[in-house]
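Journal club side-thread
Mid-discussion, someone asked how the predicted structure for our own chain would compare to the paper's figures. Pasting it here so we can look after the session.
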Amino acid sequence: METVLLVSFAIVNVIVTAAFAGVVLMQYVQRHRPHQLYWSLALGMAFVATLAYVLMIPAQPTSVLGIILFRIYYILGAALTSAWLGLGSIALVGSRRVTLASLIALALVSVLAIISIATAGVDQHALSHVVGSSGRGVLQLGAGVVTIIILNTAGVVAVVGVLLYSLWKLLRRQSSIRGLQTSNVFWGNILILLGELLNAAAGSFARFMGLESTFWLFMALGWIVFFCGVLLTGRRAARPAPASTAPTTTGVPVSSSKQPASS
């Protein structure tokens, strides 16, 4: 019964991340904004990671297939998602050159993380009790854990950096950033940061407070908060209304240009 409950929470998370990834991807198809592409990729990673986790349970975590699914979950979920979300935040306000440089650096570090996780040893005992937890301690990563820390830290730093940048713009009373309303970028990134922190806290709550059965519930809450932030940042700044023409006493608009004197 407990296993069924744990799986149901994970399935909820699969549905949540799938819906969010689909919505953001449709936004990218309609508007072709780079940040929407990176966010949809990150949300897609979260969806595949969670789906791999769910499929790992009936496949038996310690089986060959179960170990493969766990590695997929760990690569996409624990290592890559946060950093690629951060790349979306950079693309939201950064220039093409900055975004491209960040993309290249992130791709290189991501490859290192994938290799590290794919070749890491597995603690079979820890893996047999992985259901409902984040899976920390299952893989014997050694120095590879540094790469994962770098990726997750970079993701959070990117979100915080954009948040501070938008706050600076607000303090300077600049109403828009690259066509986006500055206040929306600021508050949206606060929600994105809170969503990332909730996702990170889910594992800590499970490990240190014994809340194993709520791990995926906290994860779903984190993604909901994150997605609200994404929707908020995407709201465009209002365009200024066209200047109205001054009416004459006859109701005919007066042109701003001087008329030639009549002869």
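Post-session note: Residues 32 and 167 are 26 Å apart (CA to CA).
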